[in-house]
C-alpha cells in the first residue's frame, strides 16, 4: 500500500498534475485504512494487534489524490468567485455544478449509484480543502456528503438507495432539516408533526436554519409521528422540492458563510409516499444523533481548512508584500512567534480531526474524539483568523481580500452541529463515565 506524506500544505504548493473527474475518482479504489488511533484508556479494549501505527498526517494515495484534486478545483474555480459570492450572499450555480462534475458531492456513495466509492477520510480532506478557499462552499459539500448522503446510505433500504443516491451523486443537492424555531440545542423538542395517511405521511410544521435550502432538491426532514411518545416518536422522512405545501419561507442574512443559504422552511400538509420514510418509524432521533456524531468531524475539518486558509493568506502578505521599517513585516520576531504558534494550533486541530475520522473508519468509539475535534478546531479557526486580520493590518480589515471574511466565517464553527457548550457537555459526560468507578 502506497502512502504519500502530507504535511500541512506549504504556502506555494505544487499544482496537482491531473484534474480528476467523477469517472476518474470512481475508478480509484479506496485503500482500506490499516490503522486506528486511540487517545483514551479504552485503547486496551480494542484488538489492535493487526494494526501498524503510522503518523496521523499520512493519507492513502487515494485520499491524497482527492486532496490535490479538490485543492486545484477550489483554487482555480472557486477562488476567483469567493468575494463576489460573499457580497451577493449567494452561491454561484457554476460552483455547485463544478462540485458535482468533480465528484465531490458523492464521495462515499458507491460507484454503482454514480458516486466515487471512497472512504470517510476522503470526504474529510475534501471538506478541509474547500474551506481553505471558501468555508461556504465547504459547508455545502459537508452537509450534502456527511449528513444527507450518509443518512440515506446508512438508513435507506435498497429502493431508497436506487431512488436517491444517483441524484445526490450527480445533480441534486441535499439538506438535513432538524432545527426549528423552538428547538436548537434541545433538538428533540421539535414540533413538526407527521401523521399517517392512506398512501404515506402528511407533514406539518416549520424548520429553521436549513443549510443548502435554496439549492437543494432533497430534504431529510425530522418530524414527530407520535408526540405522546416524546422523542421516540421522531421519524425521518425525505421530502422533494416542489412537493405541494413545501416552501422556503425566508433566507437568513448572516454574519459569515454568507454564500451558503440558510433558510426557514414551511411544511403545510406536505404529503409524501410511504417510500419516503427513511429508516424506521420512531427511530429518527437515533438517526439524527448518529449522523450528527459523524458530521461533527466534517465541521471540524471545515474549521481546520478555514484556519489554514486564513493563515496562508496572511503569511503570503507578511513574507512577500508588506514592508515597514525597511523590512518585510513577517521578519519581525513578534510576528513570527505568533505565526508559529498559530500554525502549531492548526496542526493540532488537524491531528484531532484525522484521529476522529480514522477511529470512525476503524469502527472504534469516536464520539468524544469528534466532539473534541469540533470544539478545538472551531476555537483555533476563531483565533487564527482573528490574528490573521491583525497581521495584515488595515489590509486585513477591508473587504478586498479574504482575511476579514475568514474571520466572520469562523464564528459558525462554535454554533452549528452542536454549539461549543454542547460539545463540552458530550466530552465531559463521556469522561465522567470513563472515570467513574
Ligand atoms: C448558519 C447556520 C446553519 C445551520 N444549518 C443547519 C442545518 O442545515 N440543519 C439543521 O437542522 N440545523 C442547522 N443549524 C442550526 C444549528 O444546529 C443550531 O443553531 C444550533 O444547534 C444551536 O441552536 P440554537 O441556535 O437554537 O441555540 P440555542 O440552543 O438556543 O443556544 C443558545 C446558547 O445556549 C447554550 N446552551 C443551550 N443549551 C445548553 C446546555 N444544555 N448547556 C449549556 N449551554 C447551553 C448554547 O451553547 C448557546 O450558547 C444551522 C445554524 C446556523 C446558524
Mean pLDDT level:
91
* Rg for CA atoms: 22 Å
Instruction: Give helix % range.
Output: 40-55%
* Biggest sheet overview: 4 strands, mixed
Number of DSSP E strands: 12
Order of helices and strands: EHEHHHHHHEEEEEEEEHEEHHHHH
Strand content: 5-15%
CATH class of the largest domain: Mainly Alpha
First-residue to last-residue Cα separation: 43 Å
CATH topology of the largest domain: Butyryl-CoA Dehydrogenase, subunit A, domain 3
What ligands can be seen in this structure?
A: flavin-adenine dinucleotide
| Spatial strand order of the main sheet | 3-6-7-10
* Total helical segments: 13
CATH homologous superfamily of the largest domain - what is it? Answer: Butyryl-CoA Dehydrogenase, subunit A, domain 3
The outline comes out as: globular
| Protein structure class | alpha+beta
CATH architecture of the largest domain: Up-down Bundle
Characterization of this structure:
The chain has 437 residues and is α+β, with helices and mostly antiparallel strands. It has three domains: 61-173, Butyryl-Coa Dehydrogenase, subunit A, domain 1, CATH 1.10.540.10; 176-284, Butyryl-CoA Dehydrogenase, subunit A, domain 2; 285-435, Butyryl-CoA Dehydrogenase, subunit A, domain 3, CATH 1.20.140. It has 13 helices and twelve strands. It has helices at 22-26, 61-78, 82-88, 93-101, 120-133, 135-155, 158-170, 284-321, 333-361, 367-391, 394-397, 403-410, 420-435; strands at residues 3-4, 59-60, 173-177, 193-196, 200-211, 216-224, 234-240, 246-251, 262-273, 277-278, 323-324, 327-328. The strands form four sheets. The chain has a four-stranded mixed β-sheet. Strand 11 and strand 12 form a beta hairpin. Helix 2 (61-78) runs parallel beside helix 5 (120-133). The longest helix has 38 residues, at 284-321. It is globular and about 80 Å long. The chain binds flavin-adenine dinucleotide (FAD). Flavin-adenine dinucleotide is lined by residues 143, 175-179, 184-185, 209-211, 254, 262, 412, 415-419, 421-422, 425.
Amino acid at each position: 500500500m502506497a502512502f504519500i506524506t502530507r504535511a500541512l500544505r506549504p504556502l506555494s504548493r505544487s499544482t496537482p498534475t491531473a484534474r480528476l473527474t467523477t469517472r476518474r475518482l470512481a475508478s480509484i479504489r479506496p485503500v482500506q485504512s490499516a490503522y486506528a488511533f486511540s487517545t483514551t484508556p479504552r485503547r486496551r479494549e480494542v484488538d489492535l494487534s493487526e494494526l501498524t501505527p503510522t503518523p496521523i498526517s499520512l493519507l492513502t494515495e487515494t485520499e491524497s489524490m482527492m486532496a490535490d484534486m479538490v485543492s486545484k478545483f477550489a483554487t482555480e474555480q472557486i477562488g476567483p468567485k469567493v468575494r463576489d459570492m460573499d457580497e451577493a450572499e449567494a452561491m454561484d450555480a457554476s460552483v455547485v455544478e463544478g462540485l458535482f462534475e468533480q465528484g465531490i458531492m458523492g464521495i462515499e456513495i458507491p460507484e454503482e449509484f454514480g458516486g466515487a466509492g471512497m472512504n470517510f477520510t476522503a470526504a474529510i480532506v475534501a471538506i478541509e480543502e474547500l474551506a481553505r478557499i471558501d468555508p461556504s462552499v465547504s459547508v455545502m459539500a459537508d452537509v450534502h456528503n456527511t449528513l444527507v448522503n450518509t443518512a440515506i446510505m446508512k438508513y435507506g433500504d435498497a429502493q431508497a438507495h436506487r431512488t436517491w443516491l444517483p441524484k445526490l451523486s450527480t445533480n441534486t443537492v441535499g439538506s438535513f432539516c432538524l432545527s426549528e424555531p423552538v428547538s436548537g440545542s434541545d433538538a428533540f423538542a421539535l414540533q413538526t408533526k407527521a401523521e399517517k395517511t392512506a398512501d404515506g405521511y402528511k407533514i406539518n410544521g416549520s424548520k429553521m436554519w436549513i443549510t443548502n435550502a435554496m439549492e437543494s432538491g432533497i430534504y431529510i426532514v425530522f418530524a414527530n409521528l407520535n408526540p405522546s411518545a416524546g422523542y421516540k416518536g421522531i421519524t425521518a422522512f425525505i421530502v422533494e422540492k416542489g412537493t405541494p405545501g413545501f416552501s422556503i419561507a425566508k433566507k437568513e442574512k448572516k454574519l459569515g458563510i454568507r454564500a451558503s443559504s440558510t433558510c426557514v422552511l414551511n411544511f403545510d400538509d406536505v404529503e409524501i409516499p410511504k417510500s419516503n420514510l427513511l429508516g424506521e418509524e420512531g427511530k429518527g432521533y437515533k438517526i439524527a444523533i448518529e449522523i450528527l456524531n459523524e458530521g461533527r468531524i466534517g465541521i471540524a475539518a471545515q474549521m481546520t481548512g478555514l484556519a489554514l486558509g486564513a493563515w496562508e493568506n496572511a503569511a503570503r502578505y507578511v513574507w512577500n508584500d508588506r514592508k515597514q521599517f525597511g523590512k518585510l513585516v513577517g521578519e519581525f520576531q513578534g510576528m513570527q512567534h505568533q505565526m508559529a504558534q498559530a500554525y502549531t494550533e492548526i496542526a493540532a486541530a488537524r491531528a484531532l480531526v484525522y484521529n476522529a475520522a480514522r477511529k470512525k473508519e476503524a469502527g472504534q468509539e469516536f464520539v468524544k474524539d469528534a466532539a473534541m475535534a469540533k470544539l478545538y478546531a472551531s476555537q483555533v479557526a476563531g483565533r487564527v483568523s482573528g490574528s490573521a486580520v491583525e497581521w495584515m493590518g488595515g489590509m486585513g480589515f477591508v473587504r478586498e481580500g479574504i482575511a476579514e471574511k475568514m474571520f466572520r466565517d469562523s464564528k459558525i464553527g462554535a454554533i452549528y452541529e452542536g454549539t461549543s457548550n454542547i460539545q463540552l457537555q458530550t466530552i465531559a459526560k463521556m469522561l465522567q463515565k470513563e472515570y467513574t468507578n
